[in-house]
Write a structure and sequence with these properties.
By secondary structure, the chain is of the alpha/beta class. It has 2 domains: 52 residues, 2,3-Dihydroxybiphenyl 1,2-Dioxygenase, domain 1; 55 residues, 2,3-Dihydroxybiphenyl 1,2-Dioxygenase, domain 1. Helices cover 18% and strands 48% of the residues. The chain has 2 helices and 8 strands. The strands form 2 sheets. A 4-stranded mixed sheet has the order 1-4-3-2, with helices on one face. A hairpin with a 2-residue loop joins β6 and β7.
C-alpha cells in the first residue's frame, strides 16, 4: 500500500490578503506571495501545515467540503486565551472529549472552523 502523508490544504477566500493577515496574527503563519500569471498567489505555513489560499467570488463561497482543520498545541486552554486576546471568535470553549484529548474551536472571518487540540 502507498504511504500517505500530509501535504497541504486549500482554503477558499474572497480576500486573500485579509485572510493571510488573520492567520499570521492568530497563529503566526509564515505568508508567502508568489507572482503567477500576472496575479499574486498567497500561501502560508502554520506549524508545518501548508495552507494555499484559493481566491473565489462571494457566490462561490461555501461550495467546498471542508469541515475544519486542526492545530495541535501543548496547552489548549492557554492557546485559546491567547487567540481570544487577539480577537479570535471562539465557537467552542475548551473541553475534554475523551481521556487525553482536549479541544476547542475558533472561526476565521470567512467561517472556516479551526480546531485547536491537545493530546496526551
Amino acid at each position: 500500500m502507498s504511504a500517505y502523508k500530509f501535504d497541504h490544504i486549500h482554503l477558499y477566500t474572497t480576500d486573500a490578503e485579509a485572510t493571510a493577515a488573520w492567520y499570521e496574527k492568530m497563529f503566526g503563519a509564515v505568508v508567502r506571495r508568489t507572482p503567477v500569471d500576472g496575479k499574486t498567489r498567497i500561501d502560508m505555513n502554520v506549524g508545518g501545515a501548508e495552507i494555499f489560499l484559493l481566491p473565489v467570488k462571494q457566490a462561490a463561497m461555501g461550495q467546498n467540503s471542508l469541515d475544519h482543520f486542526g492545530f495541535l498545541v501543548d496547552n489548549v486552554d492557554a492557546a485559546i486565551e491567547e487567540l481570544r486576546a487577539k480577537g479570535a471568535k471562539v465557537t467552542m470553549e475548551p473541553n475534554t472529549i475523551r481521556p487525553g484529548t482536549r479541544i476547542s474551536f475558533v472561526e476565521s472571518p470567512e467561517g472556516v472552523r479551526i480546531e485547536v487540540l491537545q493530546r496526551g
